[in-house]
Structures are given as structure tokens and as C-alpha cells.
User: Fold this.
Amino acid sequence: MEIDKPERQGGERSLGSSPARGEVKCMRHPVVWLTICGLLLTFSGSGLAAKSGQKPICIGGSLSMQGKYAEPSRMIRLGYELWAEQVNARGGLLGRPVELKLFDDESSPDRVKAIYLDLLQKEQVDLLLSPYSTPLTMQAAKVADSFGFVLLACGASGNSLWKQGFTRVFGMYAPADRYFIGYADLLARQGVARTAIVFEDSLFCRDAAEGARSWSYRFGVEVGLFGTYPASSQELAVLLERIHAGGMQSLILCAYPSRCFEVLDLMNRTGSRPLGLAMTIAPVMPDFFERGGQAANGVFGPSQWEPSERIPFPGTKQFISDFKAFAGTEPSYHAGSAYAACELLESAVRHLGSLNQQAIRSYIASLDTVTVIGRFKVDHTGKQVGHNPVVIQWQEGKKEIVYPSRMQTAQPRFSGGEVMP
Assistant:
């Protein structure tokens, strides 16, 4: 299925800069999410291919078009597609159009492994893009690294990725164990003595929870409860009551969106809620307030990047504007990271004049640069060491940056809207 794409104008640009835009308005058809197992979605520059007579540069990957990872995967896909449209409008790469081949992995690690093997053995793609989540990226990384292909992990931050000995896998996100540094600092400043930490039993969520526990202790906040997410709603209700009865003034929930909304709903029905409530993933999504209602107000969350004019990175404002026109909504950090990963690949190919994987690997490994979502610099394991997350909070139906202070769009609030002294 080919997506209709508008014509755009503009020349080549360097990493982090904005594409030249003519008077042509950006328009697109609504995104159709395919739910048929294994169905391929292509996004290609067929018109450019016809004009140039060149074989497209084929870039393959998988994304979760259904299942637990579908929401952030949608944002990642839009980031990929926006970049593909823009790079083809600039004449493609190496004089050839770019074609995306994205398969539905159904949020299944086994599907990911099969898809990436097929991409490299049957489809013989030129470049790879990553899926969303640490468990799925782990499978893609194993295949990519064994075939000598570079993989920019734009949707995963689990620390376990960087303990596998991969030599061609590079992270875009700050690692999961650094997600709650800012929130722990805010708790300490507020004088919160005890927090509870609850997590889904997955690679990313466990890493984020372990990091939250470590940083809480460093800031002098006691962790009064540390445990996995309950198996039933009845057990969840008992757990939340334990948190309340135990005098814990904060809850850190490391979970995927469905669990976050389940907790919000239960708190809303019982009327019991701690001073501070922080969650992973769900709060950064543009529709969090729409889905969570008034219960979403006051919720904190770590974010790798936000679509705000206070974010001082080159190309950020243009990316936000382009994405809104392209997708009809604001980008989440998942979309920003996907777009930035594509720009890094574009920069490598243009600089090298080649698709050679070893050369691309060396180029990416040596970079210390700034993308639309911030600094990019990795260590010898491929772990991102240059980028740091911010903390957002929903206030009066709006997502605000509350940490660090130099990027604040609002002061953090505790206890149902009380501004911190």
C-alpha cells in the first residue's frame, strides 16, 4: 500500500537544520493502521524513481501496528514517514529515492526476529530502522548486529541493550535508569519523605524502576514499597490502599499506557491519590488528557523531548511545524527520536557517499552532535550518554515542562494543583 505524498521543494541540508520550503502546502491522507498479520506498508518516492531511473534505497523495519506497543509505534512511524517524504523532496539519497518497508510486528518479539531476518535475507534492504520498546529492539538488534548492519535504537532505553556486546547498535534515548532523576529531585525539594515504585515486569520497566529507586535514595527519599504490577484489578486496589495507608506521598509507575490509565481510573473512582504521581510513556502522549480526563491533571512523566519553543535545539521549531502539518497532531518524543535517527542516517550516507555499513558504523560511533531532540553522543557500548530527559506535568489540561528549570514552561505542582515553594 503506497501512501499519497505531496510534492515539496527544497535543497540539501545539514544535520539539525530545517528543509527549505516552497509555497506548496503540506497535505496528506489520514494514516491507516494495518492489522493483517505480516502485511507490508510501503512509503516510497515512486515519482522520483520514475524521473531518476534509479533503484530506490530500501530502508526496512518493523513497528507495532497492534498490541501493547501500538500507541508510541504510531508516532515513530509518522516520524519515519515525514523524513522519507522530505528526503525524497530533496532528491533522495545518493541520487536515488528512498523507500520505506515497514512490517507489523504485532508487539511480538518472535515476529520481530522473523521480520528482520526476512528484511536482510529476502528483501535485501540497504538500511534498517528500529521497532519500539526494549524487548522488540533487543530482537532486531541481535539480527542486525549479526548481519553487520547498523541499527539506531530510536524507541528503546532499557539498560540491558548495552550489555549484549553489540558493536553496531546505538541508542537515541537517555537510558531507562536515568528517567526519574528529575522527579526524584522534585520530590526532595517538596519534602516528600517516602515514595512507592510499581513496575510492569519487562526489561524497560524494570530498568526504569531500578533507576527510580537508586535516584530516590540519592536524593534522600525513602522507597517504602518496590514491587511488580498486580495481576488483577482487585490486587491493584489493595496495593493502592497499602500505599495510602503506609504514608507514601508519591507513586512512581513504570508501565505501558494501558496500565497507567487503569491506575488513573481506579484512583479517580476511589478518590485516593498521593501528592505526587509519576508515570512512564503515557503522560507524554498528546492525547493523555483527552483519554485520562481531569484525573490526568497533576501527573508527572519523564520525557526524552517535548514539542516546545523552550527546547533550544536547531531544527526543532521547523520539525514541530512540519510534523503538525503532516500528521495533524503534535509529535511526542517518540516521533522526534525517530525523525532524528533518520537524520543521522541521512547525514552519514551523505557524508560518506556510501551505504557501506562499516563506514556508517564508524561515523555514527564518533559523532558528538545535536539533533532536533538534543545532543547525540554514545559510549563504546552504543549507549546514549549525551542526552538527558526532562520532566513534564499535566496542568489544567496542558502538558508543561517542569524540570529542568532552564526549560520550564510552568512551575511543578503537588497536592492537586499547589505550586511548589
User: Anything to note?
Assistant: DSSP finds twelve helices and 17 strands in the chain. The longest strand covers residues 57-63. Residues 1-39, 416-421 have pLDDT under 50 and may be disordered.
